[in-house]
Amino acid sequence: MPALEDSFTINDLEIPNRLYRSPLLECADNDADAAEVLRQELEPAAASGVGLIFQGATIVTEEGGCAAPGMTRVHDPDFVRELKTVTDAVHDHDGRIFMQLEHGGLRSMETWHQGYRSEQPDVQQLAPSPLPPLMKAVDSMGFLEYDVNPLSTDEVYELADRFGECAGYAVDAGYDGIHLVGSNMGIVQQFLSPFYNRRDDVFGGSEAARSRFLELLYRRIRDEVGPEVPVVTKIPAETNAPPVVRRRITFEEGVRIAERAVEVGFDAVVPTEVSTFWDASLVKGEYPEKAWKDEEFQNGYEEAFGCSRRARLVSFLNRLEASVYTFEPAWNERFSREVRRHVDVPVLQEGGIRGRREIDRLLGDSCDAVGMGRPFYAEPRLGERLLDGDDDVEVACESCNNCTVPQVTGADGRCRTPRVLEKAGRLRKEEVDEGGASSSASGAADG
Ligand SMILES: Cc1cc2nc3c(=O)[nH]c(=O)nc-3n(C[C@H](O)[C@H](O)[C@H](O)COP(=O)(O)O)c2cc1C
Ligand code: SF4
Predict the structure, then answer these.
(1) Mean of per-residue pLDDT scores for the chain
(2) Do 376 and 21 form a contact (C-beta atoms < 8 A)?
(3) How many structural domains is the chain composed of?
């Protein structure tokens, strides 16, 4: 069985070990200091020895498509060139960094963020098809606001070109690979899903046809980055969708999507069991009580959701979701294992992985590398404790989700639970005292 410290390859790229930081929102936006924000967010993980860093999703279009405030757009080659300082910083620690490409489609802010919507009333949501009946009902209740632009066949090809171009810019800026948000209810999942995709052209109809957009993206990206750059994608199975949703990507179809993705050429896959909706199935854990109550964010919640009454309604729905999507250790294990039985490229697993013993159990069984998301908000230098760590090492993060909700207000992504931060500080100090970590307790790479 491979150990966490063992290297592996994606395409021909050697990754120094099997621990990766899964993509998280960095809130770097496109401001003048975006590269510096990204560097400060990502370098600590590399400095702590993490082999592979997936930057949070970046948007391929000039307008629309952001799922949350503060997401970075990468349509402008001059802007992306500036990110060389980020890739250099990661490479200085012998880490590898991939850019993740995305368009939110129906999940975008222009659907749900009232403040953004009133500032940008003309931005439509890109979508594979007109709204499914269930979403029309939500729209008519005024809870979400849709103004959908179902893409023509030509527009599908044009959007794929944008993904390809941005991938090319990323490689020019030193990124080692490209990661696609094939899941998380972004536009790729919307094309894959029979719930959203009701097209009658080459990109819709049969199960295989619904995969064609993903395959087209691969080919356009490959055209731009050449044969050697690794190209990776998340793969969805909509097993968490509520029972009322009958048309969905089943577990078995998710496995077949992964097989097709590998056949067309993807170099690694990240299987994720998700819902048809953008909900707490992506971040299983607790209801973020503290975050919803925090005075600091009340105005931002009102701006995002339109008024305090609607903000309370969203909070109530969040409580319901949290009662359904309770924390489940390593929740993508079953899907990852099944995909791994069917493909011959590395399978990367993330979602609820929290300790070294669990990692050792998963590696070589359900996956070839393990990723963590929220634990890096709590411990930006997590690699120091996990790599070469004892088998009882556990992360400090408690999956309470207090870091997630404030992000709808544009607040930056970081752990917001004081007791967890105290614990993280204590654990880091112990690590430094024992000599297992760099003793520089401050400085650029400390985060
Ligand atoms: C605040 C936040 C932002 C996220 N942003 C992204 C993203 O940009 N792209 C993506 O593929 N996944 C994103 N995810 C999902 C994570 O990569 C990861 O799959 C998820 O958090 C589960 O892993 P964890 O339990 O270790 O946190 C995000 C998760 C959180 C909490
Ligand atoms: S607030 Fe902190 S402890 Fe809670 S989920 Fe986020 S990182 Fe983990």
Answers:
(1) 94
(2) yes
(3) 1
CA nearest neighbour of 238 among 317, 184, 187: 184
205: left (phi over 0), alpha (psi -120 to 50) or beta: left
Backbone angles phi, psi at 152, to 5 degrees: -70, 170
The verdict on residue 307 lying in a domain is no
Cβ atoms 100, 54 nearer than 8 A: yes
* Cβ of 401 below 6 Å from ligand 2: yes
Q: Is residue 1 part of a domain?
A: no
Look up the CATH number of the domain holding residue 231.
3.20.20.70
Ligand nearest to the CA of 417: 2
Are 359 and 424 in contact by the 8 Å Cβ rule? The answer is no
pLDDT, tens digit, 9 for 90 and up, residues 299-311:
999 999 988 988 9
420 CB within 6 A, ligand 2: yes
Give the confidence band of 447 by pLDDT, cuts at 50, 70, 90.
very low
Mutate which of 184, 278, 403, 416 to test ligand 1's pocket (most atoms within 8 Å of Cβ)?
Answer: 184
Instruction: Look up tokens 């949501």; give the residue.
Output: 125
Domain containing residue 119: 8-279+327-398
Ligand 2 within 6 A of 399 CB? yes
Q: Is residue 285 part of a domain?
A: no
- Residue type present at position 279: D
pLDDT of 446 strictly over 50: no
What's the pTM? 0.96
**DSSP state letter for 23:** P
Q: Which helix (H) or strand (E) holds 428?
A: helix 418-433
Task: Give me the DSSP letters along 336-388.
Answer: HHHHHHH-SS-BEE-SS--BHHHHHHHBTTTBSEEEESHHHHH-TTTHHHHTT
Residue at 185 is within a domain: yes
Q: How far apart are CA 401 and CA 413, in angstroms?
A: 11
350 alpha carbon to ligand 1 midpoint, in Å? 9
* Pairwise CA distance, residues 38 & 164, whole Å: 22
* Ligand 2 pocket test target in 399, 419, 422 with most atoms within 8 Å of CB: 399
Residue 183 Cα: closest atom of ligand 1 = 11
* Tens-digit pLDDT profile for residues 158-205: 999 999 999 999 999 999 999 999 999 999 999 999 999 999 999 999
- Residue 152 Cα to ligand 1 midpoint, Å, equals 31
How far does residue 311's CA lie from ligand 2's centre (Å)? 21
CB 388 within 8 A of CB 25: no
